[in-house]
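Encode chain A's predicted structure.
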Amino acid sequence: MRYMMSYDLMETMRNTNQWLGATALSMASNPAFAAIPNPALSWMAAWGEVTERSFQRMVTKPDWGIYTQTCADGRDHVVEIDTVVERPFGDLLHFRVAGRAEQPRKVLLVAPMSGHYATLLRSTVKSLIENCEVYVTDWHNARDIPVSAGKFDIEDYTLYLVDFMREMGPDTHVIAVCQPAPLTLAATAYLAEQDPGAQPCSLTLIGGPVDPDATPTDVTDFGRRVTMGQLEETMIQRVGFKYKGVGRKVYPGLLQLSSFMSMNGERHSKAFMDQIQRVSRGEASDHDAHNRFYDEYLAVMDMTAEFYLSTVERVFKGGEIARNEFVVAGHKVDIGKITDVAVKTVEGANDDISAPGQCIAALDLCTGLPETKKASHVEPGAGHYGIFAGRSWRDNIRPLVIEFMNANARKAKKPAAKRAKATA
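Encoded structure for chain A:
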């Protein structure tokens, strides 16, 4: 019961801060004070506006914000988001450009489930949708999933990816960003053994901890410093009475956010103080750089407790992927069975989350894959975010990934009847 009380206490604190911000904004903006030239009122209104927006964003799933795409005909075409596969813990979405011919590359973008929504990859989707058919894994907030839906750990996550790849077919190019890189590699190996005909054409792993011990960072060292008992005692709570998932054990998004913010507390504090000053001077806007970043950064989601704990225990502490000893649904996955899927790794030279060396370890695990189907790239000067969403991605990495897809696309086979007629 205390876990549930802790969850509701955090939500109460968030709600109270949002209310305080709204109250300060409303009071300082009251027309009764309009004739009083007091700069303190302007600062109070600015503080209220920034505070209300910040705490409100913490429980709001951001919109994709991708409405149109300019095509080769020079016209803006509507982008429609279709749900291809609907599952309790995550859906497979297709960003379909209405009125545009089907693009030659079909891309499955595997979004991370590490505290933020799949919308974190918004700019990645925008850059790929230009000349690709883009599909994205849209993971759900665990607080909204009833306990009756069952558990969801890293094995279930891997099987979800297997089902999504089967749904899309063998002409798919898969891109996994950050956290899902090792599990996407395992899902591909699982298909190589269980259903070879459903394997994708290529697999691009971006900044993922395939072997966390290859180049340890503060993030990976944390998994070594604490015990599983400590994690379960301090990080896991039960969803409170406000949401559909009441009673489900989760790693709360608000708790994750406090960890994110504490890592760079001074920088975040300065960013918010600067924004308050800009708002008070009338220099801020609804979509300025600060709001664009923090509207996404502050929007966090709960993870199921079993997913978080099994990730730490099996990927980081046990190194099951790195040692090629990962088991899914009772089946030991052998990454060496990947023989027909081209694999490329992308790392950022300045990545302090998944440092260079952690992701490229995937290529050594692919012992059955010819060297001609392996590739790697380390982007100079790029941090973790930049390798999939920043200038480094747009200018350097994306063209390399598209080139890799083109080089490893499987040619469509002609129907048997047509082949017979051609040889007659």
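The first helix runs from residue 2 to 28.
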